[in-house]
């Protein structure tokens, strides 16, 4: 007996807390069923957090009668022969209400969410008033959602059809597949309400389809913005200068590794480390732009007018860069951590969830596009660049140093590739062959959008991204890629110069 | 005249390799099994290089997807070899290859029918790459996609095929491809005798392919091809059908690459989707560029020499190989635009 008591956990003696309302109620639990039920209800209304474990123990028959009116909570299943407090159905009903009220009123949102889930699982019309009250108090949107769902479910479980109808209407306004499942169950249970239920299901389906479409569109935008970042640099080097740079993917990869290095450098400076990503943006641009300029001056300029040789040479440069990075940083993936302000998901109205870092990348891509356009249209450098592209000799006679402009243009395009690398480091593995996966797609974007047209690159990237994501659910990732490829080949049949073909003199090389 | 003698000498020297392999180990002229198998591989590479040179060096079509034709030829013969395994597989299924049993196939997919005949499989090794080249070439040449655009499209083609062949439900063994072959034409693989037979078959094909390409390039057709390479628009304005010329040579080249793949797979005993990787195709381009594009001997020389460097280098510094290969890509267009052959000819001319 002594050993048994040691196993048990003595909750409290009434004498010690006689002045406490909670403690004053406790002896009522050991009384008759009617008194028990009343005590339980009062405990629930009291809202004292200590009541929660106590009532749970009562429900699980783990509450024991202690000496002179005290109660003892047994941590596990009490041994046979212990003095367990027994309850009947009436007490059980009161207990459920009290428990739900206590949990739903808990200050901890996780606890409230769990309570809502529990009520949702065993739906009963008895819970309706508790849920209504809780819904009135609740401020957390996520919990409100669950509570509304639970309330709808509870109303469906009610006996009278009027209450059921309210539930059906309420569930029909939600956007969750669970509400749909509840309604389907109810449709089988009560065929009388089939028409109401069908309209509710139809309206849920409509909203679900809308949400799916919105999410697909977002994924497409996200892929498109990544493609655009990778293709924008190509649009400058390949589209404007006509240099085919197969090492472009490796520049993207170098941008991602620069981000990694900047992150490692900032790691030990606490106030700086959340801002390593914005710092990496200029760093990546500088690193790749410098390598690009060196490559143009040192190698590519000797091969102007020989595109196939340029292709081979730049491919070789890409190979060397990739292998050098592999030997310095290792072949395994490097992790670039998203700063805290980029983590997490955004929930838009209609329960459309989007990951924050992808949303940031879309913004970043648009920013880079605008900056590129501004650099080409509004700056001195952009003017010289356009002059050299239009007529190299006359530009030279006007005093423009064409060689320097070539180098700067190539460096500019390569720098944009580095920016793409910063963005990619947030959503893809930073590994030496990061760039290879994107290079072919980016060339497709440039060819599709029209060589030499930045607007074409924008439209091309987003339409390819969205087309890809639209196909994926039906065809799978690989077949979607193949289909896009075939579609582009057929498209080129119709419009060999891309969507936005240059017209007039600029069109012939 | 001397050039022909040198070529003949090279062929004879190659032909001697399997014979020298039969000599006792102690003999100073003994050639190891390793040399025999690696030379057999290189001969297949040389055929691929020849095919690529025909398209690039003569017609100016820089295909970065010739590895795809090579791999398709290899897959065709690989399917035949898989069918020949019969009930000797791990699962012992009388008809289905192991990977199909593993993936839960109940019967052979329709596109595997006929591959139990060697002739059919070998014909497919020619027809499938040829057809693919016909379709891609028709679409591309018709809309006058030339130069780097064509290169990118062919690279995308081999990339897409690689992704497709990696899928298990394609019915081509997915990731693992085909391996564990047992026999070909009644001869067990992996015996010295079979290895010699395959070696000689490859050598004969190489010689025949060389003679065919040499004859082709000397005809009027060949001259028009060279003209297309140098000034496509001008040839078109002169009234030649450029599309047809290019299409013919592209398809021929793809079929030759397919044969090379078909000869390659029984010798190495494995084919998997990795053969489709764009890197393989571009490596073949560097053979041709290094040896000297636009000369048939150059392509063959390039295939042998680059692979010799690769084998030698990967034996002691595998990490360096990709850097050296990259440097080859950089150095050849800048320093050796005519390749090794150009260097030799210039040296000989002086």
TrEMBL record, chain A:
An individual GO BP term? amino acid transport
Mention any Pfam family matching this sequence. BPD_transp_2
Q: What is its main location?
A: membrane
Q: What keywords is this UniProt entry annotated with?
A: Amino-acid transport, Cell membrane, Membrane, Signal, Transmembrane, Transmembrane helix, Transport
Regarding the membrane, this protein is recorded as: Multi-pass membrane protein
Residues passing through the membrane, by range: 221-244, 276-295, 307-325, 359-376, 443-467, 473-492
Cell compartments where the protein resides: Cell membrane
Asked if the Swiss-Prot or TrEMBL record annotates the protein with the keyword Mitochondrion, the reply is no
Gene Ontology MF term list: transmembrane transporter activity
Instruction: List the record's Gene Ontology CC terms alphabetically.
Output: plasma membrane
**Highest rank taxon of the organism:** Bacteria
Q: Where is the signal peptide?
A: 1-18
Per the similarity annotation, which family is this?
Answer: Belongs to the binding-protein-dependent transport system permease family. LivHM subfamily.
Q: What is this protein called?
A: Amino acid/amide ABC transporter membrane protein 1 (HAAT family)
> Top-down, what is the taxonomic lineage of the species of origin?
Bacteria, Pseudomonadati, Pseudomonadota, Alphaproteobacteria, Acetobacterales
TrEMBL record, chain B:
Its annotated compartments are: Cell membrane
InterPro entries on file: ABC_transp_permease, ABC_transptr_urea_perm_UrtC, LivM-like
Q: Which UniProt keywords apply?
A: Cell membrane, Membrane, Transmembrane, Transmembrane helix
The transmembrane segments are 34-56, 68-86, 117-141, 148-166, 197-216, 247-265, 285-308, 320-341
Q: Name the GO cellular-component terms.
A: plasma membrane
One function term, GO molecular function aspect: branched-chain amino acid transmembrane transporter activity
Q: What is its main location?
A: membrane
Q: How does it sit in the membrane?
A: Multi-pass membrane protein
PANTHER family registered for this protein in UniProt: HIGH-AFFINITY BRANCHED-CHAIN AMINO ACID TRANSPORT SYSTEM PERMEASE, SLR1201 PROTEIN
* Record protein name field: Amino acid/amide ABC transporter membrane protein 2 (HAAT family)
Origin species, per record, is Humitalea rosea
């Amino acid at each position: 007996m002594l050993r048994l008591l040691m196993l048990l956990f003595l909750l409290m003696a009434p004498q010690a807390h006689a002045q406490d309302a909670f403690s004053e109620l406790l002896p009522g639990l050991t009384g008759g069923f009617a008194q028990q039920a009343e005590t339980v209800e009062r405990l629930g209304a009291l809202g004292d957090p200590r009541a929660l474990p106590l009532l749970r123990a009562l429900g699980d028959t783990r509450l024991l009668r202690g000496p002179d009116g005290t109660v003892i909570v047994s941590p596990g299943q009490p041994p046979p022969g212990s003095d367990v407090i027994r309850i009947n159905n009436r007490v059980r009903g009161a207990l459920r209400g009290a428990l739900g009220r206590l949990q739903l009123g808990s200050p901890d949102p996780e606890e409230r969410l769990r309570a809502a889930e529990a009520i949702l699982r065993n739906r009963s019309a008895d819970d309706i008033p508790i849920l209504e009250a809780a819904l009135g108090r609740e401020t957390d949107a996520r919990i409100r959602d669950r509570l509304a769902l639970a309330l709808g479910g509870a109303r469906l479980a009610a006996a009278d059809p009027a209450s059921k109808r309210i539930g059906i209407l309420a569930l029909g306004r939600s956007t969750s597949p669970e509400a749909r499942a509840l309604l389907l169950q109810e449709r089988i249970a009560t065929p009388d309400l089939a028409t109401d239920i069908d309209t509710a299901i139809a309206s849920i389906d409509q909203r679900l389809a809308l949400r799916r479409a919105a999410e697909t569109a977002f994924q497409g935008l996200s892929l498109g913005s990544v493609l655009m970042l990778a293709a924008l640099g190509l649009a400058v080097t390949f589209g404007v200068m006509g240099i085919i740079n197969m090492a472009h993917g490796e520049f993207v990869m170098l941008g991602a590794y620069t981000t990694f290095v900047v992150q490692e450098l900032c790691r030990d400076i606490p106030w700086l480390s959340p801002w390593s990503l914005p710092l990496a943006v200029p760093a990546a641009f500088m690193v790749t732009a410098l390598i690009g300029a060196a490559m143009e001056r040192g190698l590519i300029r000797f091969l102007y007018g020989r595109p196939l040789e340029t292709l081979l040479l730049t491919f070789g440069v890409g190979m060397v860069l990739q292998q050098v990075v592999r030997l310095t940083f290792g072949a395994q993936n490097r992790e670039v951590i998203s700063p805290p302000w980029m983590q997490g998901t955004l929930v838009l109205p209609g329960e459309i969830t989007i990951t924050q870092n992808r949303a940031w990348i879309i913004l970043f891509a648009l920013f880079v596009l605008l900056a590129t356009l501004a650099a080409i249209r509004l700056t001195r450098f952009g003017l010289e660049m356009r002059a050299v592209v239009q007529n190299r000799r006359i530009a030279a006679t006007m005093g423009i140093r064409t060689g320097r402009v070539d180098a700067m243009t190539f460096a500019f395009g390569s720098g944009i590739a580095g920016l793409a690398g910063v963005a990619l480091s947030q959503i893809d593995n930073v590994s030496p062959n990061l760039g290879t996966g994107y290079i072919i797609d980016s060339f497709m974007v440039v060819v599709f959008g029209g060589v030499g047209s930045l607007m074409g690159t924008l439209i091309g990237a987003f339409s390819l991204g969205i087309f890809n994501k639209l196909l994926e659910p039906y065809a799978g990732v690989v077949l979607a890629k193949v289909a896009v490829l075939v579609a582009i080949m057929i498209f080129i049949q119709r419009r060999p110069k891309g969507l936005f073909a240059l017209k007039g003199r600029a069109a012939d090389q | 005249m001397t050039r022909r003698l040198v070529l003949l000498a090279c062929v004879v020297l190659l032909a001697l390799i399997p014979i020298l392999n039969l000599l006792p180990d102690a003999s100073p002229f003994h050639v190891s099994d390793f040399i025999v198998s690696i030379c057999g591989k290189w001969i297949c590479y040389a055929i691929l290089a020849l095919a690529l040179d025909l398209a690039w060096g003569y017609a100016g079509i820089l295909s970065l997807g010739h590895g795809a034709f090579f791999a398709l030829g290899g897959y065709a013969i690989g399917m035949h070899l898989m069918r020949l395994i019969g009930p000797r597989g791990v699962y012992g299924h009388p008809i289905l290859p192991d990977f199909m049993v593993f993936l839960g196939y109940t019967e052979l997919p329709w596109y595997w029918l006929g591959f139990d005949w060697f002739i059919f499989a070998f014909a497919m090794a020619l027809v499938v790459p040829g057809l693919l080249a016909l379709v891609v070439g028709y679409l591309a040449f018709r809309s006058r996609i030339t130069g780097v655009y064509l290169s990118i499209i062919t690279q995308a083609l081999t990339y897409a095929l690689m992704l497709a062949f990696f899928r298990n439900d394609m019915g081509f063994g997915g990731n693992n491809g085909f391996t564990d072959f047992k026999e070909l034409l009644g001869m067990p693989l992996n015996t010295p005798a079979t290895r010699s037979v395959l070696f000689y078959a490859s050598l004969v094909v190489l010689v025949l392919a060389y003679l065919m390409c040499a004859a082709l390039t000397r005809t009027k057709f060949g001259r028009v091809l060279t003209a297309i390479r140098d000034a496509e628009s001008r040839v078109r304005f002169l009234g030649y059908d450029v599309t047809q010329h290019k299409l013919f040579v592209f398809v021929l080249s793809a079929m030759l690459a397919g044969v090379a793949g078909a000869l390659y797979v029984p010798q190495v005993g494995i084919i998997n989707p990795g053969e489709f990787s764009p890197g393989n195709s571009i490596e073949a381009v560097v053979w041709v560029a290094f040896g000297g594009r636009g000369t048939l001997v150059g392509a063959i020389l390039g295939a042998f020499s680059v692979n010799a460097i690769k084998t030698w280098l990967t034996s002691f510094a595998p990490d360096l190989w990709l850097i050296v290969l990259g440097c080859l890509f950089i150095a050849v267009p800048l320093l050796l635009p005519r390749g090794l052959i150009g260097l030799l000819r210039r040296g000989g001319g002086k």
